[in-house]
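Input record, target 12 of the design panel.
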């Protein structure tokens, strides 16, 4: 163990950005640089090649786009009514064109997301010129069902255009769907732009919306009431209006970590895929997702006499992953040096930093390469703590690189791009501190060193807080340094049997022995289970309904492991003959709860419910209506048939009551939360500015929108 990693282990808490269509020639991309992330195979739903070459209105497909307007769906777009079905999409009711009382405006929407931490495509969108009202959405209200959901989830604007065109306050509506210089409809990738023109009269407003590609249902757009196209003096508005835009949440689909969610457009299996907000559903969210750096650290920079002071503050206490960061590697260097190279294996120094939080070897490697390198801090930087260092650029060493381990991971680290950022301007004068601060804040990214297999953040047994010694853990199957994009769901149906074992065997007559065991120790997701609630009942009883909101009792069980309200509600049902709870505390690794139940010819079913403690609101159950232990003739079913049904029915569910956080390290999860019923809701199914626990980049690091009167 290196000097710094010893106490790091002891004291911290107990991109391929569009796989399959990230570069225009069909190759794999990484961040803003094609191929850089080192993940060569497409994710499921993925290999559209050139997404620009589709012939319909489809925005961002996970497979080839062949027509239509289904936007960013993960399956082929085949045309017709899914999008712009037969209605004009470039002019709408443009009745004022050419009238001397109107002004023509050119609207340019440029994708600049390659300058930030989360490069993303933006889908074809919808626009409207209107005199009043909120034609596209109403802030704080549910989606109207007029097509916003298709736009926000799948990048398909056609239905919304048709609905908006019928609004009597709208004088012109349409879709912007073809990138400037493009040969056909498709999304705009970083460096590309949409353009469209509108005609407006004095008093008119402009509204538009475009899907943020690496999300479930987030879109960039104007305020609900639009943006005025004329000022108070009647002068046409011109210039950059980006600052008036926001990222909005359509409230139609449960949010996942931006850029990593398995039911987001680049990775989903088909359009309109993913659970609704606020309802019970099977758990599909990734348990290995990580937030963007802006949710872990904030950056401030000052400058005096050519020397910069950089301060990193750990802000993870209010984000989706509560984690320390390691002492910080930093170096001032020339153009030829890079602390790592995306798509290549990590050096020994990067491995030591990323796995064990020890920057010393990386400092030595950098110094040997001619960089002015040091480490800041001698112990982990916990939530609420800060670390500062100074950097003085010269004409030969003018660039700054920094890197720090994300403590509650196996080998993830926050870092500047491989070549760093410049501290000098083109005249070799020090840049403004505010500009350096803004660039650092925007360009810090979360990287995977590729040296150790990833486990669920905050709970993995081979992560620094829990590993037996430094450099512990199996090798990563992908050994390349890459942007962190792990979206594995460790509690999905394919893996749950490795984590939880439920056995039901006939004892005698219609009495059965039931055992629930925690078998997750040593896995990538070593969960904890709450005491087990159970009920014996007939075929009319269901504690929850998929696709419907959870009851207060189920919420209490799923969020806090408290089954008392659920059992009181269930016990009062006429179809329930017996119920109870087993255990007085959590079931840890290797533990089990056993109990006995007696059924009857009329009450033939058994249901069980237990919270997965290292989660926000995930629980296990044998389906909504339980498992049949006695057949319709009143005879006990065989142990083999029951075991087969258990294997089929045992599922991890999301109660839909609390926004999910990272792995087992979310600050609002039961092991870490300040009190019961703590954490952000999933949004309530209303359209609103993005308020999710998963941080998103600032709108100005995603788009540049300029309006020019003609």
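The sequence produced for target 12 reads:
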């Amino acid at each position: 163990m290196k000097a710094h990693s010893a106490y790091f282990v002891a004291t911290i808490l107990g991109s391929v950005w569009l796989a399959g269509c990230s570069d225009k020639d069909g190759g794999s991309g990484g961040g803003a640089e094609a191929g850089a992330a080192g993940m060569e195979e497409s994710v499921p739903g993925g290999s559209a090649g050139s997404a620009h070459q589709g012939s319909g209105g489809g925005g961002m497909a996970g497979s080839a786009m062949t027509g239509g307007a289904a936007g960013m769906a993960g399956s082929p777009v085949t045309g017709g009514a899914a999008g712009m079905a037969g209605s004009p999409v470039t002019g709408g009711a443009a009745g004022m064109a050419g009238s001397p009382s109107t002004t023509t405006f050119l609207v340019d929407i440029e994708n600049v997301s390659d300058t930030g931490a989360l490069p993303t495509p933006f889908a074809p969108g919808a626009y409207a010129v209107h005199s009043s009202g909120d034609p596209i959405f109403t802030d704080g209200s549910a989606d109207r069902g007029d097509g916003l959901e298709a736009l926000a989830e799948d990048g398909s604007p056609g239905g919304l255009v048709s609905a908006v065109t019928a609004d009597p306050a709208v004088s012109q509506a349409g879709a912007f769907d073809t990138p400037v210089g493009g040969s056909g409809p498709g999304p705009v990738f970083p460096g590309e732009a949409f353009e469209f023109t509108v005609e407006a009269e004095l008093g008119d407003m402009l509204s538009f919306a475009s899907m943020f590609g690496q999300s479930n249902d987030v879109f960039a757009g104007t305020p609900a009431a639009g943006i005025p196209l004329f000022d108070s003096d009647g002068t046409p508005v011109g210039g950059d209006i980006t600052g008036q835009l926001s990222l909005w949440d359509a409230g139609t689909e449960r949010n996942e970590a931006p850029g990593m969610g398995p039911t987001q457009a680049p990775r989903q299996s088909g359009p309109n895929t993913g659970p609704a907000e606020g309802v019970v559903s099977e758990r599909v969210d990734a348990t290995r997702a990580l937030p963007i750096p802006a949710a872990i650290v904030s950056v401030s920079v000052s400058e005096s006499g050519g020397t910069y002071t950089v301060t990193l503050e750990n802000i993870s206490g209010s984000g989706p992953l509560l984690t320390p960061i390691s002492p910080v590697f930093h170096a001032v260097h020339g153009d030829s040096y890079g602390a790592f190279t995306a798509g290549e294996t990590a050096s020994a120094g990067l491995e030591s930093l990323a796995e064990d939080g020890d920057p010393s070897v990386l400092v030595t490697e950098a110094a040997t390469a001619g960089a002015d390198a040091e480490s800041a801090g001698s112990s982990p930087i916990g939530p609420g703590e800060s670390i500062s260092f100074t950097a003085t650029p010269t004409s030969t060493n003018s660039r700054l690189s920094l890197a720090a381990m994300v403590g509650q991971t196996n080998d993830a680290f926050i870092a500047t791009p491989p070549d760093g950022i410049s501290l000098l301007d083109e005249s070799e004068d020090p840049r403004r501190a505010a500009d350096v601060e803004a660039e650092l804040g925007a360009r810090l990214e979360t990287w995977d060193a590729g040296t150790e297999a990833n486990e669920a953040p905050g709970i993995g047994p081979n992560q620094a807080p829990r590993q037996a010694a430094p450099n512990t853990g199996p090798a990563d199957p992908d050994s390349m340094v890459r942007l962190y994009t792990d979206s594995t769901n460790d509690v999905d149906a394919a893996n749950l049997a490795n984590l939880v074992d439920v056995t039901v065997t006939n004892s005698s007559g219609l009495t059965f022995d039931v055992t629930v065991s925690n078998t997750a120790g040593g896995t990538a997701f070593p969960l904890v289970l709450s005491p087990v609630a159970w009920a014996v009942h007939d075929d009319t009883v269901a504690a929850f309904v998929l696709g419907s909101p959870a009851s207060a009792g189920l919420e209490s069980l799923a969020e806090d492991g408290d089954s008392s309200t659920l059992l009181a509600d269930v016990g009062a049902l006429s179809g329930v003959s017996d119920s109870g709870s087993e255990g007085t505390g959590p079931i840890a690794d290797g533990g089990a709860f056993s109990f006995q139940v007696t059924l009857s010819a009329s009450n033939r079913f058994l249901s069980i419910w237990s919270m997965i403690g290292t989660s926000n609101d995930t629980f296990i159950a044998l389906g909504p209506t339980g498992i049949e232990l006695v057949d319709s003739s009143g005879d006990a079913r065989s142990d083999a048939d029951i075991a087969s049904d258990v294997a089929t029915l045992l599922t991890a569910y999301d109660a839909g009551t609390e926004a999910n956080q990272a792995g087992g390290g979310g600050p609002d999860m039961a092991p870490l939360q300040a009190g019961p019923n703590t954490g952000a809701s999933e949004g309530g199914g209303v359209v609103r500015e993005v308020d999710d626990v998963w941080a998103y980049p600032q709108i100005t690091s995603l788009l540049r929108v300029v309006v020019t009167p003609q």
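The longest helix spans residues 433-443.
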